[in-house]
């Protein structure tokens, strides 16, 4: 690679602006992340895209909010607008764990140091800019702004908050992936349209003051949801809002949404159609250095960058629609796939980096195996309002062919400098099970699974069944756990056939809405019977713009408006966690007491049988943990005790 100069990055200081010979800036971006000039870091993508329009763009990464606020004035005022984002993650997720305890590392900061990103960063930055530069428009975007665009529950303050447009005092919000709306905003500005008059651009939101005229657009239909004040008083009304918001976010011909906030009106314009292959290729083909800014050279590595340094993102979007996940809310449910040519061009760039050793860490996306998947008949997709294309069943109109993906892997591996490419992103294992993916060619699914297992995994294949309880899984918009059993059978078969020694690592969530203690006990028993000794558990963290979070706060399912119980107290959450670690001595007495109390001797016999306890005490050091594979799977036992009373339906 050619040696890079400081001017190869977007400027971050006055000195760097002068190196480029600029006297004035058109756009100044503020970000909660350190500046990494890479296509998987949103601020870099937006900066490079604006630059490609011929604009003079600078970026102020992680501005200091604890001093005299010099970072907010050092570059002066931009000609067009300030752009603000909290970063690649919601700052509250970056700063706190599920128990609301402050994290000791920030993955998007050099050396993982904390303290460089304020809580609610988008709001903090925007308010400072409006105070310092009241006449300069502020445009907010990124995942924090996107997921907080309407009345939303904030887990960390335990409050229902209004649109971030209201709290941040920003002039415009861009939700979702920002390339398309920003292109139109810039076009109108360069045409001479005042920023304050730009209010009919797709995928943007603005606050209208009392008395303002509603902009007309003959192509849009409108819908009004319950006001912020009504939501504060009525949790069921708040829940009912979400069905409208989610469905309109995922429709190709969506309605414009209105919501009253005091004497103002929030107006959310419909999203753009999914990016075309040419559009997404253009975004990834911009002249990124693919490296952190040199200013961080002496501060230590940036963990998030180190993780993706040698990875390739092949698509955006996810049609899973999981009730606890924000991906589809931000990126959409329709898949925007890059061309194989664009991907291979990036592979070649990475392969020629000075420190590349021949190993690509990931060829993936939000879900690794959704590349090039879309509706067979577009007119059917045009009318669809379903939030998921694969729940409760895989849509018959969805083309789930894994052949293009298998061919892509093989093309990547044919590069002379690539020794091995790994799949680090999560794989939807259910889509590889013919019994669930009934319209797919079983041979093609097996070919993909075999390709992944033999060439793209380093010892472990990670998948996310998330739970074992069918009622919980249904609410999660995930398939029955029985399909995980089916996938494991195929996994084991290929393992034996190819003489591999791969491990299957399943990920699960505790404390999810509708999950009860007995569900977690069953999860522990069933996974133990399958040969797993779980070592990690992810506690459900309520994040804005998800079904599960709406249920957590309101107690109602937004689609049925029926009540759903959710574990909320620290005691409830800790008890659900404890079942994951049935093998720890400090949990055994409590597990025995709890299961005896609810009459679940069947689960107790599986989790803590006498012979298992004896085996554990005499277990040779270094012996494999998958010790129970010879047992009959718990869900197949003929003599298993069924749930009693209100829980009787929870056993498959």
TrEMBL record:
<dbReference type="InterPro" id="IPR013704">
    <property type="entry name" value="UPF0313_N"/>
</dbReference>
<feature type="binding site">
    <location>
        <position position="325"/>
    </location>
    <ligand>
        <name>[4Fe-4S] cluster</name>
    </ligand>
</feature>
<dbReference type="InterPro" id="IPR007197">
    <property type="entry name" value="rSAM"/>
</dbReference>
<dbReference type="Pfam" id="PF11842">
    <property type="entry name" value="DUF3362"/>
</dbReference>
<feature type="binding site">
    <location>
        <position position="318"/>
    </location>
    <ligand>
        <name>[4Fe-4S] cluster</name>
    </ligand>
</feature>
<keyword id="KW-0949">S-adenosyl-L-methionine</keyword>
<keyword id="KW-0408">Iron</keyword>
<protein>
    <submittedName>
        <fullName>YgiQ family radical SAM protein</fullName>
    </submittedName>
</protein>
<dbReference type="InterPro" id="IPR023404">
    <property type="entry name" value="rSAM_horseshoe"/>
</dbReference>
<dbReference type="Pfam" id="PF08497">
    <property type="entry name" value="Radical_SAM_N"/>
</dbReference>
<dbReference type="InterPro" id="IPR058240">
    <property type="entry name" value="rSAM_sf"/>
</dbReference>
<feature type="region of interest" description="Disordered">
    <location>
        <begin position="615"/>
        <end position="652"/>
    </location>
</feature>
<feature type="binding site">
    <location>
        <position position="322"/>
    </location>
    <ligand>
        <name>[4Fe-4S] cluster</name>
    </ligand>
</feature>
<dbReference type="InterPro" id="IPR020612">
    <property type="entry name" value="Methylthiotransferase_CS"/>
</dbReference>
<keyword id="KW-0411">Iron-sulfur</keyword>
<keyword id="KW-0004">4Fe-4S</keyword>
<dbReference type="InterPro" id="IPR022946">
    <property type="entry name" value="UPF0313"/>
</dbReference>
<comment type="similarity">
    <text>Belongs to the UPF0313 family.</text>
</comment>
<feature type="compositionally biased region" description="Basic residues">
    <location>
        <begin position="637"/>
        <end position="652"/>
    </location>
</feature>
<feature type="compositionally biased region" description="Basic and acidic residues">
    <location>
        <begin position="615"/>
        <end position="624"/>
    </location>
</feature>
<feature type="domain" description="Radical SAM core">
    <location>
        <begin position="304"/>
        <end position="584"/>
    </location>
</feature>
<dbReference type="InterPro" id="IPR006638">
    <property type="entry name" value="Elp3/MiaA/NifB-like_rSAM"/>
</dbReference>
<dbReference type="InterPro" id="IPR024560">
    <property type="entry name" value="UPF0313_C"/>
</dbReference>
<keyword id="KW-0479">Metal-binding</keyword>
